[in-house]
């Protein structure tokens, strides 16, 4: 495999492990990767619906890796992704780390990368739900925060290959954190963003979930596939979390050996400043949603992006 570029959290000693994951889980090898990139660029060149689209390796490999180098499926996901960006500008447009609202929720440590798991190679994202001011912001801001973090990290090959682990501290969350989600946003996020954004989300850990939120989550998960449910882990206490997650990763406030959330967030904010131009340039991509030519998306766009509250998890594509 080719040498991998540096990442936000270094991959020292993980190169062989990442190559193994790429080969066994993603079917990646040099010849197939080169052929797939060539084929995908040609598809983009011939696709009259795509007026502007990134064609660099790092961007296209996001889709090829999440779809295990099936070029047709990667092309379909890319078209869904571009459709999502234009259909929901309130979630995707101007993902600027210097934006006042995004900056405020970032500085509140609502969502912070805390390290890279040496066992799996995955980058670990930590969220403190109670730090999100649900009286001031709604779920649009929460989704934008998630998109900002994902887009900032997705160009890194290690994250494309090994994937992401998310940990959420739900202690102290209130009903306002639930009610700030409209049914339209919940349906749109679950049905569209998860299907259209090329993230390999391999583990979700939820800690200290209040009873009222646990009941809602239980109902939602009753619609989920077995594969998705297997990736969700609930822990009653932080002590239970520490038994499952390496203490080398956890922030100091959570009994781990890592830095404090404040220090970790300061590092991430500096990283985001270095990515600001790249993040804003994503807005230059364009797909013509009114073009009558056949799309790679074989499902009606209206169903993909606005299925309403009756949609379930059953149509989610979980890698």
UniProtKB/TrEMBL annotation:
The UniProt record lists the CRAL-TRIO domain at: 114-262
Q: Which SUPFAM superfamilies match?
A: CRAL/TRIO domain, CRAL/TRIO N-terminal domain
Matching entries from SMART domains are given as: CRAL_TRIO_N, SEC14
GO molecular-function term, one example from the UniProt record: phosphatidylinositol bisphosphate binding
Which InterPro entries does the UniProt entry name for this protein?
CRAL-TRIO_dom, CRAL-TRIO_dom_sf, CRAL/TRIO_N_dom, CRAL/TRIO_N_dom_sf
Name of one Pfam family that matches: CRAL_TRIO
Q: What is this protein called?
A: AGAP007355-PA
Q: Which organism is it from?
A: Anopheles gambiae
């Amino acid at each position: 495999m080719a040498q991998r570029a540096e990442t936000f959290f270094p991959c020292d000693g993980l190169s062989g492990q990442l190559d193994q994951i790429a080969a066994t889980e993603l079917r990646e090898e040099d010849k197939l990767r080169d052929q797939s990139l060539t084929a995908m660029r040609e598809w983009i060149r011939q696709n009259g619906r795509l007026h502007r689209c990134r064609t660099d390796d790092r961007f296209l490999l996001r889709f090829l890796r999440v779809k295990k180098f099936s070029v047709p499926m990667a092309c379909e996901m890319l078209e869904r992704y571009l459709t999502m960006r234009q259909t929901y500008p309130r979630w995707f447009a101007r993902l600027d780390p210097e934006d006042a609202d995004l900056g405020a929720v970032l500085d509140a440590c609502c969502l912070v990368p805390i390290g890279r798991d040496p066992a799996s190679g995955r980058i670990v994202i930590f969220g403190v739900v109670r730090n999100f001011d649900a009286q001031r912001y709604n779920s649009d801001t929460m989704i934008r925060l998630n998109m900002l973090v994902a887009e900032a990290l997705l160009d890194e090959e290690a994250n494309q290959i090994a994937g992401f682990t998310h940990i959420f501290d739900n202690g102290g969350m209130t009903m306002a954190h639930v009610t700030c989600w409209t049914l339209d946003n919940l349906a749109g996020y679950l049905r569209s963003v998860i299907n259209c954004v090329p993230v390999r989300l391999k583990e979700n850990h939820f800690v200290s979930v209040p009873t009222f939120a646990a009941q809602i989550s239980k109902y939602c998960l009753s619609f989920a596939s077995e594969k998705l449910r297997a990736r969700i882990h609930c822990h009653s206490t932080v002590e239970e979390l520490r038994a499952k997650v390496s203490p080398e990763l956890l922030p100091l406030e959570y009994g781990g050996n890592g830095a404090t959330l404040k220090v970790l967030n300061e590092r991430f904010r500096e990283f985001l400043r270095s990515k600001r131009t790249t993040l804003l340039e994503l807005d230059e991509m364009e797909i013509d949603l009114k073009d009558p030519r056949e799309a790679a998306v074989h499902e009606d766009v209206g169903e993909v992006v606005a299925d309403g509250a009756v949609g379930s998890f059953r149509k989610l594509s979980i890698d």
